[in-house]
Amino acid sequence: MATNPRSRLEAAETGRGVEDVSSTGGKTMNEKEETFVGAESTRERRRRLMSDPARAARVAKIREATAEMDRVYAMNLAMVREAAELTQVEVAKKLGSAQGVVSRTENRQDMYLSTLYNYLTATGATDVAIMLTVNGKAVELDLGAVLGHAALPEAEADTEDVESMLP
Fold first, then answer.
1. Which of 13, 58, 106, 114 is close enough to 77 for a disulfide, judged by CB 3.0 to 4.6 Å?
2. Is the pLDDT score of 140 beyond 60?
3. 109/98 Cα distance (integer angstroms)
4. Residues in contact with 7: Cβ distance below 8 Å, sequence separation at least 6, in sequence order
5. pLDDT tens, 68-100?
6. How far, CA to CA in Å, does 52 sit from each of 27, 35, 46?
């Protein structure tokens, strides 16, 4: 007897045999047909199903795996911009600068934290932070808090140098 994956999953989750599930459309012969109508019934069913610790653990594991799959790993700033589906021209307009400045910023190997923060927020990033590990402990550095949310309104030009910013 051929079974579909949904029947096998349903059988595993309910503890019933695959034959019982597939031959009765997901119900055993002695089960009454239950109909859930409306948001309240759905919430009640979800609460009942999630009260099973094993099922709740499976759901949590699936949610964690899904969140990991949804994460975008960026190896450089251009990948961040591309993930936001923006062009250099669009980011430049948001920064109030020229496209060339965005290009130089993306290719720079060293920059001010304010430049990084401004670029990332121009691409639509929120809660901009740097994650690092210190002595085996994960540490999150919130750039907005470090900069006091007073970052410069545009990316720095590549001709700027630190001496010109000193009093």
1. 106
2. yes
3. 19
4. 18, 21, 22, 26
5. 666 666 678 998 999 899 999 999 999 999 999
6. 19, 21, 11
Judge whether 161 and 110 are in contact, CB under 8 Å. Answer: no
Structure tokens at 15: 């503890």
Higher pLDDT, 93 or 158: 93
For residue 90, how many other CB atoms are within 10 A of its CB?
Answer: 16
| CA dist 131 → 17, 39, 134, 137 (Å) | 47, 39, 10, 10
Please tell me the pTM assigned to this model: 0.49
Q: What are the backbone angles phi and psi of residue 82, rounded to the nearest 5°?
A: -65, -35
How many CA atoms are closer than 13 Å to the CA of 65, on its beta-carbon side? 6
d(CA 89, CA 103): 9
The CA distance from 44 to 75, in Å, is 44
Give residue for tokens 């009942």.
48
* Helix, strand, coil in percent for the chain, rounding step 5: 55, 5, 40
Nearest-CA neighbor of 91 among 73, 106, 72?
106
